[in-house]
Amino acid sequence: MPIAHPTVRARVAARALALAVGLVGACSSEQVEPPGDDTDDPATSATPTGNATATEPGTTTPDDPTGTSTTQGATTDDPPDPTTGTTGDPAECETPEGCWSCTPTTHKQHLNACTDATCEPFPNTKDRLPLLEEDGTLPPLP
Amino acid sequence: MSLRLALYVPLAAALGLTLAPRGVLAAPCADLPNPVIGIGGSASKPLLAKVAAALHAIDAPIDLVYQSPGACFGITYFVDGTKITGTANYWDAEGTEQTCDLPLTGADPDFGMLGVKGTLCEGVDAIPDGIAEFPGPITSWSLIASNDSSQTNISAAAVYFVYGFGAALGQVAPWTVDAELYSRNATSAALIAIALGAGIPPTKFKGIDVGTNQAMISSVGQSLNPENALGFVSTEVADLNRDTVHTLAYQAYDQSCAYWPDSTATAFDKRNVRDGHYDLWSPYNFYVPVDGDGEIIDPETRRLVGFFTGAEPLPDGLPLLDIIIDNGTIPQCAMQVWRDEEIGPLYSFQPDAPCGCYFEARAAGGTDCQACAGDGDCGADAPVCRHGYCEVI
């Protein structure tokens, strides 16, 4: 069936504008976030930690001295169980590794869901991205 | 056509002219037995080439003709009502690319094909009345480095600085050399998608416009300063060229780790696209003239697009699901997440007739799903036998 066309451009423009004004929301130095995303996300205030603090490209977690790729959270032998009665509370669903172990229901939770896929954190730090603002937000484009 | 988009036309025409070997007159496209003419981006050419070859083997074969000046031309020609001219490609039964001449007076395209929604193209405020959008297979977008580069990952924020400020001004090592920052123009679906992911207005995207996906592969893969070189293409094009370039793992905003489209850097399973860990993906969209009931007007185009959407039964000789998977693209039936706006919020998705097990078996070479010959072989958790595997519904 043909698809209706909502005001995509308006949403895109709003997102770009939100970034251009410098990401007013509070952001950690490890995870740069555009404002306006996941405002209904119960996990927004709980910044995943763990291996996101790697300092050099190509390296991974502080507890991974080999510098090889890592995985986040559960493996196929240890899958997250969405049927365990969790409430979606970040305290209950975020693992120490920073992944989301409950059934994802928001964009951010999908992006950070526990998986046995290989990943490598990119450090969004001032060392790696010198033009980051002191508070970790993005400056407007020139 | 917007003024800015019109500025891209000479470049597109120049690229089109290079498709025909010099000194060789191509045959008229209109002389093909049953031509269906499309226009759009170069990202989808590998897929269309495979489909076009198979279309010769079906009853009432279709000659798929495609011109690829840039994704946004797949909608702007319908917006402007202009005709396409120059040369186009078609493929013989062996899949060999051929060139034909469009009429000097121009031809009306039967369909446009874009890797992003047409309304994201500059000058397209709305899809015109009488044109409908039909989502097709899913492609993902890869930021790529040379295989002689040590770089393995990148973040949306890094892309913001590199492509938003320019390599030198952006100061994200090692991508600090403007001459090694390869890009496209704002008619490119890859550029639009990556710009959306990073929060850069497409028209502000920096870098050297190399024109096509294949030129991007050459520019990055053959760079004399490979550590500094950065570019982007559709993932299926990157996959075809893993001997020279590699896809960088990508970390979206709000994401704490960078993922490849596949479960590892060397796999081909597209698992991270399918489950939402890899953010840079979008469906190919067909744009086609329709009647008042939303029915595609041209019967041959209706057949062709219908094969992709499921509106037409697949004929013998057209293993479209296998072609899509083998191409490195993803059928909608294998997706576990979906989104309603380009690079927008993800949500869980259950296709009407899931094919995730078959996808894994074919793309990754194996699956944990149970093989079956009929529903009776399947258990309650995955009760339907589809394409030889027990699926959830």
UniProtKB/TrEMBL annotation, chain A:
Bias kind Low complexity: ranges: 42-90
Sorted UniProt keywords: Signal
Source lineage: Bacteria, Pseudomonadati, Myxococcota, Polyangia, Nannocystales
Region (Disordered): 29-99, 120-142
Signal peptide: 1-26
Domain of life per record: Bacteria
Name of the protein this chain belongs to: Uncharacterized protein
UniProtKB/TrEMBL annotation, chain B:
Source organism of this protein record: Nannocystis exedens
SUPFAM superfamilies the UniProt entry points to: Periplasmic binding protein-like II
Protein name: Uncharacterized protein
Signal peptide, first to last residue: 1-26
Keywords carried by this UniProt record: Signal
Superkingdom as given in the UniProt entry: Bacteria
UniProt entry tagged with the keyword Signal: yes
